[in-house]
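Memo to structure team: turn this sequence into structure tokens by end of day. - J.P.
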Amino acid sequence: MDLKQYQSQIEQLLPLMRDSDFPELLDRILFGESNNVKFLIKMELNRLSAPCQRIIDLRDKFASAEEFIFNNKRHFLDSAAQKAFKKSLKRFNNVYTMGVYEDVINLKRNQNKPDIGKQGKELLQAEHLNLQRSNARGAERMHFAIPVQLFSPDGQEIPATTSDISTTGLRIKISQKYRLQSGIDVGIIFTGLQKEFSGPELRNAVPYTLVGQDKGDDITWLRLARTQEPMRFDGFIEGFIKGNKHRYKINTENLLHSVTTKGYEQYYLPLMKGLPLFFSHDHEPKLESVLYNSQNLPILEYWRDENGQNCLTQLVTPERIALLLKQPNTIKETLIYSFIHHTESKAFFIAASKEELQQTGLKPLFLSFASRKTSWRVYKLQLTVAEPSILKRQFNEHSPENVSRIALEKALEVRYVGLLTDATFDSHKPSYQNLSSDVKSANQLTRFVSKTHSNFEQLPFKFVQQRQEKRYNYNTLVTLTTTTGSLEGTTQDFSPRGLKIALTQAAPVKKGDKVLIALPKLQKLTKTMNLSRMVYRVVGFNPARTIVHLCVGKHAEAHTGTEFFNLLIESNPGKLSEAVEKLPKPGLELALRHLCCHHFLSAVNFVTRHHGHFDIGRLAIDPQHHSLALLLSGFSKIPGQFNLSPLFADKLMEQLVGSRLKELPGNKANHQVELYVHLDEKTQAVTHGLADDFIDDSERKAFINHALQHGHFYSILMSLTRVGKPDIESIQKELDYIAHYAIHKAKQVEEELWSVCALVELLDTTTETLYRFGLRDPH
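Reply from structure team:
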């Protein structure tokens, strides 16, 4: 329950607490409220009136703070804080209570953030969304303070006290004089429990791993995780928590963070533009798996040949990945350019990285020739070393039933996590084409023809937003007619709104084309419907254009194909074979999804909407290693948060998000813009402008050169995507649990997720821009 709505009644009741008729006064002031509300308000009054032992020291925040003594306690307050302290004492009968402490702290907190309050919309402040799994703990945690003894590998015996406890982890505090390294294995003897219980499970040290630590003024908080197989002790703790959860407070903060993070993931992962890649490494890096959704599927389909085989491994070859791994940075990255050469019914994939073009001296020829092709692509490839060990604790603790043993073993083999993002921008083509006028010697590019490929697993992100309807395998004759003629083939699968067909020859079609479809054999099943000239729209195809994906138009309910296939499904219950992804390792997708989030290589801003106004919400980014993190954290007035004014200041937020979002129909349409940013090294001033607003390349190069000479230059590809409703159903179980102990917190999470209206994905294209213009960053 949120007590803010009862603040006036609480203020009225505080000075009356010592009155003999306080119960009657409480009932009178809270007339009409339930007994539960009255109880909670009485508890809040007792909390505010409880004596406080905390010292208030404002010297690090306010230079004017001076010594202020009350009841032999030395505080350090400025004049405003002293006035607030004395005023609050009168409310609490001249006793230093928690209410006095909070009055002073809240006053100074509000004074210290005027920019964030009144100017928050101008400051464009974004709270950091951390998707990492390092400290995730899903088991029930109970606040419980007892003495324990910690044994370190080097023989230290350290006295400690628990803060909270669960079946999978422990939080304890030790004196700051002790030094321990995170990642070590330790043993814990529960000396406090030994005094109350005599079971054999408490006699020996229980094994834990130190996964993190937080330093206080004179103590250190240690976060410990159980990483071994369950033992008798785990059963004891589980029973202990169940038997005492009404006696001790249950800590929901960790679960609250977990469920909030999961809610945001449900928004982003089905719509992320990059394609997550997962590599093993026995003797050389090898692509093992990818995760796809409706937005990054075109990257995957681009590399499908005339036989339906996916040739993506011709892009991420072991040699190319090995060369990339030599980079010293935590996140290694490169640019790869590609196009497809068609001969008769065969497709040859031709690709070269930025480094390969430099080494061969073929940069002008390759880029100018390739950019003239309709199949021209520019990819940004990022790679980092994986930490698959986080999966052991994650799935041992949370949901082992969702991830099979074979899937977990497969995921634990991952050595590198990558992200392949399509950075192709049509307006860049003239810049590339101007690199060389002589493209007659294009046969030199045959050295970049990819010839061999290996198999890898293509796994779909599983979310409720992904597929609107079931598809069914069905093979029957089909004729596709375009303006140039007719082609024959067979259907592969269907749904009421779509068809997937395989043709004997390449179809002269492009995305968005309308074609006529005839189903001669199925026509024999109906006399009331005409299946010979049904209009479908092309939504995709393989590079050889022999596999074509079709869908009906906007008015599906009036489409003959939709009507017929709905009737076919209803008339054959249980007889049609549903087209499903074959997943030989149940749960592998979930395990890889955790790795993808733990090694988060993207940057995405979640835009929220309140009362018709668009606001910066949260920013998901790796704060230590992402190339944009320094730019976006440098202007933040709050540690650990980000400031997006370098991107959205000067009303760009409203121009790029507010006005454009209204034009996007649903969550499938993207709007992309490229932004140039100059950060002045001396003044820290930011100048930015849309790349399309410059007259020509000469103006763009002049801006970039000036930025490089007087500071830093960034180019950022920003993709705006509208989102649908949040997937509350997937987190309902956790929300219900939180609501049982703190209903107002559960409501806050739900309200926050419902306020998200769009994603702005940020792709750093600085390297691509400089390489295209032949410029170098002197830094």
